[in-house]
Amino acid sequence: MKKECTLKYKTLFGPVPSRRLGISLGVDLMRHKTCSLDCVYCECGATTRLTLKRSEYVSVDRVKEELADYLSRNKKIDHITFSGSGEPTLNEGIGDVIRFLKSDYPQYKVALLTNSTLFGRLDVRRQVKDADVVMASLDAATEALFKRVNRPHPELDLHGMINGISAFRKMYHGRLLMEIFIVQGSNDSAEELTALKRILGCIRADGVLLNTLDRPGTETWVAPVGANRLKDISDFLEGAEIVRYKAGPTEITARHDDLMARLVSTVRRRPYTARDVSQIIGLDVETVQPVLDQLVASNQLVTRQMDRGCFYTVS
């Protein structure tokens, strides 16, 4: 028999069907939206606190308590992933949480999604080096484009960030994947891609992931590149993997009496379609859709139309 939930999770979200990590339990170490970048494409919305200051933005003790409670229920997950509402490495307790997972729950793989901006710091590199998978973003090869697409904190510079990634690669023995978010008309030019390819060759990551706009971004002018162009870029970068949405049931269940709260919590961090939500929650679309409609009618959620369908997010 499964244990009854005694906590209302504030730092965990999902599990969600990740396009890269299978069924992924998210760990959010940040307050919305605290980050070192304000990327034009970010699906979490505009950065409200642009900072490089490391602090315990979310209580590490609370995170460990929630993880212990959740994992005691034997949920079927593939990875425990640090991501969410901001840059995870800004939380100075991230190393403590990784050590906790590695010592108490070694059966689970740990992943980190990072914007790479803090790899210039030795303390950050040391704290995250025990993660099994690190997905590090690099969208620009020139300072001008870095400022246009990623809109960094004023004290950040692209050269220092790239040096930090390279330094991390040298000390990291897990799987390092570089992720490039392609924005139409920005970093999809031959010149920019050639420069990116040269940098990637120096970093020597275990793989390169190509992404483009799938959910509503921060700025309305941001547009995805087409599938054919994305394939051309993949070929140019010699086998970069194109990120695709993971479909299929997740075998994750939710109680109907807290379904509304679960739906709001799910879309608070990033927008999803009704189909996405149904796969995350483990219920069919016919069950989820009326609840989403009710949340829209009560002004708790709003909708945005994209190529892939109608996305729901918090109002």
TrEMBL record:
Keywords, comma-separated and alphabetical: 4Fe-4S, Iron, Iron-sulfur, Metal-binding, S-adenosyl-L-methionine
InterPro entries for the chain: Aldolase_TIM (IPR013785), GTPase_Obg (IPR040084), rSAM (IPR007197), rSAM_sf (IPR058240)
Cofactor(s) for this UniProt protein: [4Fe-4S] cluster
Gene Ontology molecular function: 4 iron, 4 sulfur cluster binding; catalytic activity; metal ion binding
All residue ranges annotated as the Radical SAM core domain in the record: 19-255
Superkingdom of the source species: Bacteria
Keyword presence, Metal-binding: yes
Pfam families: Radical_SAM
Stored PANTHER family: FEMO COFACTOR BIOSYNTHESIS PROTEIN NIFB-RELATED (PTHR43787), UPF0026 PROTEIN SLR1464 (PTHR43787:SF11)
Protein name per Swiss-Prot or TrEMBL: Radical SAM protein
